[in-house]
Amino acid sequence: MRHRDSDAMWLWWISVVGDLWFGVTWLLNQITKLRPRKCVPSISVLRDHLDQPDGGSDLPLLDVFINTVDPVDEPMLYTMNSILSILATDYPVEKYATYFSDDGGSLVHYEGLQLAAEFAASWVPFCRKHCVEPRAPESYFWAKMRGEYAGSAPKEFLDDHRRMRAAYEEFKARLDGLSAAIEQRSEACNRANGKDKEECANATWMADGSTQWQGTWIKPAKGHRKGHHPAILQVMLDQPSKDPELGMAASSDHPLDFSAVDARLPMLVYIAREKRPGYDHQKKAGAMNVQLRVSALLSNAPFIINFDGDHYVNNSQAFRAAICFMLDPRDGADTAFVQFPQRFDDVDPTDRYCNHNRMFFDATLLGLNGIQGPSFVGTGCMFRRVALYSADPPRWRPDDAKEAKASRYRPNMFGKSTSFINSMPAAANQERSVPSPATVGEAELADAMTCAYEDGTEWGNDVGWVYNIATEDVVTGFRLHRTGWRSTYCAMEPDAFRGTAPINLTERLYQILRWSGGSLEMFFSRFCPLLAGRRLHPMQRVAYINMTTYPVSTFFICMYYLYPVMWLFQGEFYIQRPFQTFALFVVVIIATVELIGMVEIRWAGLTLLDWVRNEQFYIIGTTGVYPMAMLHILLRSLGIKGVSFKLTAKKLTGGARERLAELYDVQWVPLLVPTVVVMAVNVAA
Ligand SMILES: O=c1ccn([C@@H]2O[C@H](COP(=O)(O)OP(=O)(O)O[C@H]3O[C@H](CO)[C@@H](O)[C@H](O)[C@H]3O)[C@@H](O)[C@H]2O)c(=O)[nH]1
Ligand SMILES: [Mn+2]
């Protein structure tokens, strides 16, 4: 384009470079979508292969990780529902163990988990007897649609359902009253035995009334506050016996008849890792690394599935579905993780804040699935344990695998625990080879949960979940892909897992900020996709470049949005009328881009609304949030701590109306300042 004003050269250059950037990123985004792949698990084939005629099963062992921090920001009811859905899922009970990590170290969680384990004793057999779905009671009792009855006792169903619901209401009430009960009890105990000793006058007491809680106290005290308390480990439910044990027949104080169903419960463990001031505890990734070590010592399953505290199992076949891909004879052995999409319950009908993110989950990830596999998105993902230990995938292993291992593993890579290191070879084995809890000493378990354990090791770097980056998920997935592993995307009907989404715009924007800041940070770290070796598929590399550089677009987009300001300075700028050929080009290009968008949503089975929301939030992100993400990187490069992993609050609300009311509860967010400026400028111009 010609121009007459050499003073405005810089504007012209920004526009040319911007157009180039848009063109190139658009192309890079398209080429990663050229070979999308949908995978469907065949659970019936898995059953044919692994279920034995006597009711036993050859399914591999599985460790389930679930994380929570704060019983208020992450309501306990959700967390306990997740626990119940996991305990009731359709996987052989003796083959899986659940590790509940409580980063807050609070007694409320501990006792809440105890209550859940107690309630599970009737909830789980109930689910098995009547084959109910979903197996998280809160969603089950409030589900509008129910499938056909699939259980073994249709006549008893209505009665059992009614009784179970009453029991659940009682469970909920007890859960609700837990905080108050603990407070009352502690006050009473302190009055009785704390008076004489000054330092424990504020103690929080456990249910027996004679033991002080090791973790955080309601009234924080030295060694008993958030960020400073010893490690706690409690096996809440022991490893069950190998053979089915039928439940109790109906009686007066136990009206449900479980005499024909297996009443065993899977193993359940409570973990609160040690916290000490002066240590960076590395949030979720740090918590999961502790779970990884503790589970290695207790059950050491070759597969692991992880959940955020607010995500529950919605389809009880989901664990089996993931196993289908892990054991798949084609490329199962090279699969490091199987990622399920994140689905959410409490989003408003029009998905105002684009929480469902359908374009990402149902289009982008399927594109990746055709290359080396989807990225890890944080929750609802099954891992192969040895991959997390940074082993090579079989296809990249030299002929003599053992030797290769010895050379790859550097001294002190995994820390000092010999029991942990001894557990490693067995983890590669898909058969059970479990040291029973008795063989691992308490001291060793405690050692695995200390803050100092990871000092000077490769944990958080080449071992376990990666940290020191605002988001742990994409980068951990990247490390696995870089080592040559693949991943598989698994969407199923009904949804495998469901969770809760941020309740209001503020939380949602901070979430986007964390993701974009973390991605950009990854690009400038040693996990930059440009630095990966040849094991990373070329197209996968392109995809990771897209995934880590997208916030940069904000610069050009904001410039374009601010250009109309020119109209406000009459006489200062020479504005050329668009000529016809140019206008034609613009129209054709826009039409093509929109058309491709349409084809994409058609193929992925999405609606126009999903697409509109995606575009809309992209604009809100690029104007409001990504500039902050860029700032974050700038601060980090200057050695200042930028965005941190702020917990996303999910509030618990009663009725649907109340819940939606919160959507409009827009708090003033500095993040929206640029967006508002852009809007004002455009309107004025
Ligand atoms: O110190 C901490 C902080 C968080 N968490 C847990 O981490 C999970 C995720 O945190 P949340 O605040 O819910 O983040 P979201 O924005 O909801 O999470 C999305 O984005 C994260 C990456 O930024 C991913 O890890 C998540 O899986 C993904 O759901 C929750 O279960 C927390 O309990 C901890 O265990 N310890
Ligand atoms: Mn979440």
From TrEMBL:
<protein>
    <submittedName>
        <fullName>Uncharacterized protein</fullName>
    </submittedName>
</protein>
<feature type="binding site">
    <location>
        <position position="283"/>
    </location>
    <ligand>
        <name>UDP-alpha-D-glucose</name>
    </ligand>
</feature>
<feature type="binding site">
    <location>
        <position position="284"/>
    </location>
    <ligand>
        <name>Mn(2+)</name>
    </ligand>
</feature>
<keyword id="KW-0333">Golgi apparatus</keyword>
<feature type="active site">
    <location>
        <position position="473"/>
    </location>
</feature>
<feature type="binding site">
    <location>
        <position position="74"/>
    </location>
    <ligand>
        <name>UDP-alpha-D-glucose</name>
    </ligand>
</feature>
<keyword id="KW-0961">Cell wall biogenesis/degradation</keyword>
<feature type="binding site">
    <location>
        <position position="308"/>
    </location>
    <ligand>
        <name>Mn(2+)</name>
    </ligand>
</feature>
<keyword id="KW-0808">Transferase</keyword>
<feature type="binding site">
    <location>
        <position position="103"/>
    </location>
    <ligand>
        <name>UDP-alpha-D-glucose</name>
    </ligand>
</feature>
<keyword id="KW-0472">Membrane</keyword>
<dbReference type="InterPro" id="IPR029044">
    <property type="entry name" value="Nucleotide-diphossugar_trans"/>
</dbReference>
<dbReference type="Pfam" id="PF03552">
    <property type="entry name" value="Cellulose_synt"/>
</dbReference>
<dbReference type="GO" id="GO:0071669">
    <property type="term" value="P:plant-type cell wall organization or biogenesis"/>
</dbReference>
<dbReference type="GO" id="GO:0071555">
    <property type="term" value="P:cell wall organization"/>
</dbReference>
<dbReference type="GO" id="GO:0016760">
    <property type="term" value="F:cellulose synthase (UDP-forming) activity"/>
</dbReference>
<feature type="transmembrane region" description="Helical">
    <location>
        <begin position="582"/>
        <end position="605"/>
    </location>
</feature>
<keyword id="KW-0812">Transmembrane</keyword>
<keyword id="KW-0328">Glycosyltransferase</keyword>
<dbReference type="GO" id="GO:0030244">
    <property type="term" value="P:cellulose biosynthetic process"/>
</dbReference>
<keyword id="KW-1133">Transmembrane helix</keyword>
<feature type="active site">
    <location>
        <position position="103"/>
    </location>
</feature>
<feature type="transmembrane region" description="Helical">
    <location>
        <begin position="542"/>
        <end position="562"/>
    </location>
</feature>
<dbReference type="InterPro" id="IPR005150">
    <property type="entry name" value="Cellulose_synth"/>
</dbReference>
<feature type="transmembrane region" description="Helical">
    <location>
        <begin position="617"/>
        <end position="635"/>
    </location>
</feature>
<feature type="transmembrane region" description="Helical">
    <location>
        <begin position="12"/>
        <end position="28"/>
    </location>
</feature>
<dbReference type="GO" id="GO:0000139">
    <property type="term" value="C:Golgi membrane"/>
</dbReference>
